[in-house]
Design a protein that fits this description.
- The protein is an alpha/beta fold.
- The protein has a single domain, classed as 2-enoyl-CoA Hydratase, Chain A, domain 1 (Alpha-Beta Complex), CATH 3.90.226.10.
- Helix content is 47%, strand content 14%.
- It is built from eleven helices and nine strands.
- The protein has helices at residues 30-45, 81-90, 106-113, 140-148, 150-159, 165-170, 182-193, 212-226, 232-245, 248-263, 266-284, and strands at 3-10, 13-20, 49-56, 95-99, 103-104, 116-119, 124-126, 163-164, 176-177.
- A six-stranded mixed beta sheet has the order 1-2-3-4-6-9, with helices on both faces. It has a three-stranded mixed beta sheet with strand order 5-7-8.
- Strand 2, helix 1 (30-45) and strand 3 form a beta-alpha-beta unit.
- Helix 3 (106-113) crosses helix 4, helix 5 packs parallel to helix 8 (212-226) and helix 8 (212-226) packs antiparallel against helix 9.
- The longest helix is centred in the C-terminal third of the chain and has 19 residues, at 266-284.
- It is globular, with a radius of gyration of 19 Å.
Length: 290
């Protein structure tokens, strides 16, 4: 299995902790997704469990989806990232994403699908798909604007650059930064949230997007000027804009359509090849101190 399951008994109730355990970066490949889904189902079925935490082992939350699966049927084989996020959202028990290390791509999208989000100080959280010619394809372009606002969503998704958890906490996208003993603090938080009568879902948020069109216009000008040869940045803007104009489900379908269009582009294929070549070069490079 590529995820561990533990039940913590304390005065705050029984909190189930699902820990990603797929070194080196806890990528969300098929085996990991299956393990998470099985553990989540077990926690929901267990009458002793009052809340569920998903966190990462190896001092990292997750590097995101397994890029080796992109374009292959296994990427959408159940449970897909969409399936897991739907399971988190519909869980009758609170699900808390506890970011204890770097969190990228699909990991950020999973966190946005949880009822609550906490993080350790200084951890970096991002949606870097644009750097391999794609856009977030599991709801990132639809959930992040709803919870963090258009400006921060554009900043993160169009550039692909990560931001410290404190930035997201300041924007009210993350619920708490936990100092000191992170897991203990996350367990206490989850126990507290188990007392809530209603579980919040990002997809249900309906914020005012007044003035957003000016932001989209400025972002399109900047993207076309900086990367005229790459289609992904402009598609990212289109998907984020859809979150302000369409229902959540319609926006999600539009995001997935754009993701598949980008997946078929030669630019995305070339960027993925470059990604794997760079990773292979790092593995074979001699130690820097030789």
């Amino acid at each position: 299995m590529t995820a561990r399951y533990d039940l913590h008994h304390d005065i705050h109730g029984n909190v189930a902790v699902i820990t990603l355990d797929n070194p080196p970066v806890n990528s969300m490949g098929m085996a990991t997704r299956q393990a998470i889904g099985a553990h989540l189902a077990a926690a929901i079925a267990d009458p002793l469990v009052c809340a569920v935490i998903i966190t990462g082992g190896n001092n990292i939350f997750t590097g995101g989806a397994d890029i080796r699966e992109f374009g292959l049927p296994i990427a959408m084989q159940a449970p897909s990232l969409h399936d897991l996020i739907r399971a988190f959202e519909t869980s009758p028990k609170p699900v808390v994403s506890a970011i204890n290390g770097v969190c990228m791509g699909g990991g950020t999208e999973i966190s946005l699908g949880c009822h609550y989000r906490v993080a350790a100080p200084g951890v970096m959280i991002g949606l870097p798909e644009v750097k391999i010619g794609l856009l977030p394809g599991a709801g990132g372009t639809q959930r992040l604007p709803r919870v963090a606002g258009v400006e921060l969503a554009l900043r993160m998704i169009v550039s692909g650059n990560a931001v410290p958890a404190e930035v997201l906490a300041k924007a009210n996208a993350w619920d708490r930064i936990i100092e000191d003993d992170f897991l203990a603090g996350a367990i206490i938080f989850a126990g507290e949230m188990a007392k809530q009568k209603q579980l919040p879902r990002v997809r249900d948020k309906n914020p005012s997007f007044t003035g957003a069109q000016q932001s989209f216009s400025a972002a399109r000008v900047a993207a076309a000027s900086a990367n005229p040869q790459w289609p992904a940045p402009l598609k990212c803007i289109d998907a984020i804009e859809a979150s302000t104009l369409q229902s959540f489900d319609d926006g999600l379908a539009y995001e997935f359509k754009l993701f598949n269009e980008l997946m078929a582009t030669p630019e995305a294929a070339e960027l993925r090849r470059a990604f794997f070549a760079e990773r292979a070069a790092r593995k074979t490079a001699p130690p820097k101190n030789l």
